[in-house]
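Dear H.,

Thanks for agreeing to be a second pair of eyes. The structure we're designing against is below in token form, covering all 667 positions.
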């Protein structure tokens, strides 16, 4: 070890004297991250003017401002806890984020400017640069320095936004964020947008001051915080919590919907997460919100007393309620020397110091004075909560849906005689997070009956998640799918389901759970031009790749299923690639294919069946090999399909083109 220390010192001296690269291992950066595919409903974001008197150099030297690209490597340090990578420039910080942190240790040697924040409205400049949206795992020690100018475009915000958008594990210590504009559709935080996964995450000696705007734009179960937007899952115990907050504060300006529960200074919102919080305060907002046993720290659920989980938490908004432990202090008593008397438990000898004309600051930040800065009022989302993005619901002017919440709004509306269409791909959960299925994802709809006309316009829906225990024995009630249930008046076109996990109690279908109606009435819900691909898993009592089942009539054309199915009814053939178990005597199939499964339940032959393919033998079904239907080979393997409608891509299964009334299948 002594030898290593001497070697490191030698390398550092050589670098300083000669300017050559150091002996740390070189890592090649990944490509620049692309902007998020998920956009918000684009509410009007308030154009805040910058505060006067911010303690930064009025004109930062241009060479100190990030140019928008990552460095090729970090020249100093080794990435270990003892010898962290030393971040000297914004480009080196960008490098650390471009590789997702890699679990390494990093330390800032100076303040970092991601944008030129010297003007009041710096965020309106043409050359303003958006920050990285990647997951990060690792350890950052600010060493008493701050990051300025963290920015996300309000016209194209990511789902999660912060200096770290998605934090998968590690620590952030001795770091402040200032003069930043952090906008997300779902979760925004000054330091971290969303903390996810089971690995521990530590926030210590961190702050976001009143020059930081943190807000979310999309209505729903979302949130914004000064330090962390969303504490997601992970359980935890008092001995080993998932997230630790110690000596942190927020004065950030927060905005979004449902402000009573989802805008809070330290943690915007939390769900099923075991965290602890000690010696923290917030101004303008409560530190956190523990309105239920799942929104508060889950450590409380094992009988641990709340004052062991929350220690010395202060704010100027309100006192404790429900499962919370916090103390309200009048704003005037937070300022100056008086704070030492009211912030009981704070270490004013080693960690904190009082500020004349300001609230307590952390001593390690020597280059800022900590005085209160006059800023505009907290921003708000200044739009009415629209059920849909646009449209009037007529055939000529359908309602436009651009996010999962608007889709849910459709399923709870009176959809009879109404028209809807997708304006873009939508995400029910963040499927870019590799652990999304185990990280307490938001559950999809289990109710609602659709009666109208829906056109996906060729867009995809990602991240549907349902995890119920399927019943055994007799069929029970319950419908689950992109559309849990439809009536025989429904028309569903041109939508593709991907990256989803749906396990329901009874009827489960990739596109439709069940169709309601009379088994003998000649009325048909139309499902056409829809696919469910290999990234989708379906489970339940009665499962169909496209339609789970039901009693009403259905006409299914130009559809395919290539996912996986588990059915829990003892091998009674209620798990099939297109239709699970439909009791209607009036259902029709044509121009469909499935891999690995029979097409329908054998006892219920379709009334009308056109060309249908499967890898399994079944009456009326043409058999083909799954190896034969990739790319152009599909035309040879399935010659009976109408290849003026189906599209071929190299190395992929065929998908239907857009199906309109003009090219509907004529049963």
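And this is the sequence the design step returned. I haven't edited it by hand at all.
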């Amino acid at each position: 070890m002594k030898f290593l220390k001497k070697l490191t010192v030698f390398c550092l001296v050589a670098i300083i004297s000669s300017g050559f690269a150091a002996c740390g291992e070189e890592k090649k950066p990944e490509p620049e991250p692309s902007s998020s595919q998920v956009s918000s409903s684009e509410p009007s974001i308030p154009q805040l003017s910058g505060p006067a008197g911010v303690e930064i150099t009025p004109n930062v030297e241009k060479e100190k401002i990030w140019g928008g690209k990552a460095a090729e490597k970090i020249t100093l340090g080794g990435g270990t806890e003892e010898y962290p990578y030393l971040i000297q420039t914004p480009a080196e910080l960008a490098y650390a984020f471009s590789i997702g942190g890699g679990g390494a240790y990093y330390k800032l040697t100076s303040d970092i400017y991601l944008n030129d924040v010297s003007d009041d409205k710096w965020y309106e400049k043409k050359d303003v640069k958006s920050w990285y949206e990647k997951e990060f795992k690792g350890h950052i020690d600010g060493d008493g320095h701050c990051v300025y100018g963290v920015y996300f475009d309000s016209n194209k915000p990511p789902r999660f936004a912060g200096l770290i958008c998605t934090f998968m594990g590690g620590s952030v210590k001795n770091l402040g964020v200032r003069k930043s504009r952090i906008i997300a559709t779902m979760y925004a935080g000054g330091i971290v947008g969303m903390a996810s996964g089971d690995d521990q995450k530590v926030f210590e000696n961190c702050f976001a001051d009143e020059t930081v705007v943190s807000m979310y734009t999309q209505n729903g179960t979302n949130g914004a915080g000064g330090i962390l937007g969303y504490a997601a899952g992970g359980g935890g115990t008092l001995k080993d919590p998932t997230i630790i907050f110690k000596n942190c504060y927020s004065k950030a300006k927060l905005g979004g919907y449902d402000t009573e529960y989802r805008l809070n200074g330290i943690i915007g919102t939390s769900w099923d997460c075991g965290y602890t919080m000690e010696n923290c305060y917030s101004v303008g907002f409560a530190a956190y919100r523990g309105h239920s046993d799942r929104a508060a720290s889950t450590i409380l659920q094992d009988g641990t007393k709340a004052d062991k989980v929350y220690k010395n938490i202060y704010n100027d908004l309100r006192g404790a309620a429900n499962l919370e432990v916090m103390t309200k202090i009048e704003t005037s008593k937070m300022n100056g020397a008086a704070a030492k008397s009211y912030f009981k438990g704070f270490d004013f000898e080693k960690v904190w110091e009082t500020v004349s004309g300001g609230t307590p600051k952390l001593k390690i930040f020597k280059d800022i004075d900590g005085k209160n800065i006059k800023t505009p009022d907290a921003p708000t989302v200044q739009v009415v909560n629209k059920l849909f993005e646009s449209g009037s619901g007529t055939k000529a002017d359908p309602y436009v849906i651009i996010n999962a919440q608007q889709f849910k709004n459709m399923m709870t509306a009176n959809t009879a005689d109404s028209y809807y269409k997708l304006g873009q791909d939508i995400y029910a959960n963040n499927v870019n997070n590799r652990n999304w299925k185990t990280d307490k994802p938001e559950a999809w709809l289990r109710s609602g009956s659709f009666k109208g006309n829906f056109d996906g316009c060729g867009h995809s829906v990602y991240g549907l998640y349902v995890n119920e225990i399927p019943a055994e024995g007799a069929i029970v009630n319950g419908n689950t799918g992109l559309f849990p249930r439809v009536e025989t008046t429904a028309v569903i076109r041109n939508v593709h389901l991907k990256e989803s996990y749906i396990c329901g109690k009874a009827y489960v279908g990739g596109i439709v759970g069940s169709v309601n109606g009379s088994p003998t009435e000649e009325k048909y819900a139309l499902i056409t031009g829809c696919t469910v691909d290999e990234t989708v898993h379906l489970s339940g009592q009665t499962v169909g790749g496209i339609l789970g089942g039901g009693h009403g009539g259905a006409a299914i054309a130009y559809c395919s299923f290539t996912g996986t199915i588990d059915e829990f009814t003892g091998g009674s053939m209620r798990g099939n690639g297109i239709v699970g178990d439909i009791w209607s005597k009036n259902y029709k199939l044509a121009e469909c294919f499935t891999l690995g499964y029979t097409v329908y339940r054998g006892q219920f032959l379709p009334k009308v069946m056109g060309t249908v393919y499967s890898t399994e033998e079944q009456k009326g079904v043409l058999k083909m090999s799954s190896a034969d239907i990739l790319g152009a080979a599909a035309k040879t393997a399935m010659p009976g399909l109408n290849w003026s409608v189906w599209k071929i891509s190299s190395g992929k299964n065929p998908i239907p083109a857009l199906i309109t009334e003009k090219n509907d299948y004529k049963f």
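Two observations from my side: The chain is about 10% helix and 35% strand. The first helix runs from residue 2 to 18.

Warmly,
E.
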